[in-house]
Structures are given as structure tokens and as C-alpha cells.
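Protein folding task:
====================
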Amino acid sequence: MQTNILEYLEATAPRLPEKLAFSDGTEGLSFREVYGQARAVGSSLLARGADREPVVVFMERHPKMAAAFFGAVYAGCFYVPIDGEMPGFRVEMIFRQLQPRFVICDGKTREQAAALAPEGAQVLLYDQAAACAANEGALAQVRQDALDTDPVYIVFTSGSTGTPKGVAACHRSVLDYIERLDEVLDVTEETVFGNQTPLYFDACLKELYSTIRCGATTYLIPKQLFSFPVKLVEYLNEYKINTVCWVVSALTMISGFKVLDKHIPEYFHTVAFGSEVFPMKQFKLWRAALPKARFINLYGPTEATGMSCWYEVDREFDEGEVLPIGRPFPNTGLLLLNEEDRPAAPGEPGEICLRGTCLTLGYYGDFQRTREVFVQNPLNKAYPELIYRTGDIGRLNDRGELVFLTRKDNQIKHMGHRIELGEIEVVAAAYEGVRGVGCVYNKEKKRLILCYEGECEAGSLGRYLRAKLPSYMVPNRIVPIEALPRTANGKLDRRALAAEMAD
């Protein structure tokens, strides 16, 4: 029985010692190097007194950052990923919340890490820690005392109040997630991942842990390439990347600029995506360009360790339709609860709630917010059983597949009607010349505002929407915009867009 994520690395490193594990296209680490350096970092932390506590890994996005994560776990601690791309104010808030005693940094982040670390904290340069001799006895003792319910990491997400929430996940939930995910994606030694998300998001779990479990290879794609779609596709082909798990906007950036007409990621055989609704017009461009590839829609919150549901596209869809998010992973329980906390009827909207091993430990150091969303299953009156209330609204279609509708906080009341902003976006995204859309609501002025990226005229888009939507859903303003604001992992930043349109 596996109880620790490091068992993946310990099984793969002896089997494939010289195989490339992680690379950014310039520098890389083999499995032997990842294993050796991680054990050295763990030993260095133990020698300094680290003990079942958060270790901040504040480094530039690099293969060594992944080894640092595993090093913190070897010390019996849990890592907290931060990198230079994260906004400075956010980094400061995380340091204030954690008050970490240990920070691992590199040459580029050393000065900032030292300035932010609390008094008395030890700031370790990765290269120095990785040169430490492995203390086999100390590492063995840590493993002997470890439990599968011990934390692996804390990933900070944006809180609705503006204060980051640190989600703590344990070995048991990560092991369960990665093994189910690898079955869905069919990950093998031949898999070559192209990582798109920053390493301080839980989304990178798919590449990091699937790589050490299956002996795959992950390329950390340079961020700047996502602003140059042709160069991005050239990079994908140069390193023969065949599997991606990207946010939708990273894919539509390529198809929206018609790059697929001349430049195709020729090695892609598995395209997984999530975090946003894939505009059907753009999805059809991808499917036409890669007719033999598998396309898999993934859904899941950070609080449930990653992706919890999946749907492999197995049929044709009309424009204006939405791809389902399908069904839950094995060993993941899904509840769809209506406003009375009863099971939603087929076709009836309900809040998506999750139960089972996938649930994380909650929010680090914040029991109140944890209790607000990790709650007793209202359908279980017999014994304690937690579920996580996602705040997402979905429904079952006539095939029994789960379809994501909207966020609870994206539902508005306008002209006496309840409106889901996502429905307006789906319709607008189908219009010729539209590459990306975002809809917000000005509560004070009671106005729906639609912003879009693309070449079409606002007037023609407005006429199209009036023909397709009921009058109460037609935006009051339609605004062409050069670039929609996005979060660091590429999702639409609706809060920033609303602030931009507030004037």
C-alpha cells in the first residue's frame, strides 16, 4: 500500500536513472538527479531542525523548483510554492500568514526572500542545499514516522475577500488523484508533457507527479511563448510534446489567431483542458486540426486536490452547445444539491459538491473559512461525512453527463430574471471574429457589460446577440478590448474586468 508521494520517485529513479524528468528546454534534470538532489535538500532541512512545518520554495520557474518541492517532503515537511511571477503584494501576504522558519530560494530570488522572511528564519540557497550529503538515517526515520494524512503542500488561491487562502493537501488525496488522472490521460514513459501553468498553482500537479510516477518527461514552457503562438507551436514540435493539460485560454490563443491553419502541434495525441468553458467555435478548430487526438475536458477545484471530473469528447457538438464535464473520477463522490440541499432532479441546476478521498485538509490556519465550505453531508444523517461545496452550479443533461453552468457568484438578478453570465459568453463566443469574451454586471447602474477580443464590430455583435438572446440577457454595453484581464494561470479575471468597466 502506497502512503507517500515520494514512493513514485523512488520506484522510477532506479528504473530510468538517466531519462530526462524535467526541463525548460535549456536546462534539465534526470530522474537520478531529481532523486539525489531532493534527498540532499531534505537532509539539509532536517539538519537545521525542520519538523512537520511549511517550507516556502521561492524560486524562478525551473526544473530545480520541482526537486525542491520533493526535498521539503523528504524532510517530513510540506512545501509552499512561490515564484518570481507572483505579484509582490500577494507574496508578502503569504509570508505574513505563514511566518515560515525555512525558505528555499535561488540566486534571483534570494534578496527578496531574505527581505520577506520573518526574523530568525533560515533562507537556503537551493544549490547549496542540494550539495548536502544525504543523511540516510534521518530520512529513514522521517519516513517511518510519516502518515498518508500528513500534508504535502499548501497552494494559495485567491480569496473572495482579497486575502489568499492556503489549501493544504495530504499524501492520501494526491496519490488517489494522480493514479486516477493517469488512467484517464493514459500516461506512460512515452508521455511528454508541456507544462503551461505557474508552479505555484495546483494545476501543475498533473505534470509533476504523473512524471515521477510513470517515468514521463515534462517541459516547463517559457511563459513568454504564450504571447507568440507561432513560436509556441514551434517549441511544442521541437521537443515533441504530445500531452498538454492547459487552461482553455492558452489553447484559444493559438486557434483564435488562426495559427492552426499553417502550424499544427504535430505530436499532440492528448489535449486536456479545464478551468473555463471552451468556446465551441474554437474547439472545433482544434478538433479539425488534430482529428486523431483525444480531447478531454477536466473539472475540479483546488480544495478537492485538483481535477475531479472528466469527459472525453466522443461526439459532435453544435455551436452554442457546451462541452460536458462528464462524470467524477473513480473514488470521487459527486452530489448536485438544489437550494433546499436535496438532490437536484435531472436537468435542474444544483451546486456541485464533492466527497471522498479527494477532499483536502482545508485552509491552513483558517478554521472558520474551512468550516464554511467543508461541511457535513446534508444527505447523511448517520455519521460524520464531509463534503466540499464548490460554489459551482451544474446540471445533468439528458445523457446523464454533468454540465457546468456558472459560479454561484456569477449569477445575477437583472430585470426580474436570474441570469448566468456564462450563458451570454457562450453565445457571444460563437460569433465570427470573436476570440475571447467576458461579461460583467454593474450592480449600481444595473447594466450588463460584454467585453470581447476580436476583429468584428461591436454593432454587428450586438445585432447577433439580440437575435439569439432574450431581451433581458442582451448586454447594455458591448466593448471591444485589446486583451481581457487574466489571472496568472490564464483564466478570465472577472473581478479585474468589472473594475475596469466600472467607470
About this structure: DSSP finds 16 helices and 26 strands in the chain. The two ends are 58 Å apart (CA to CA).
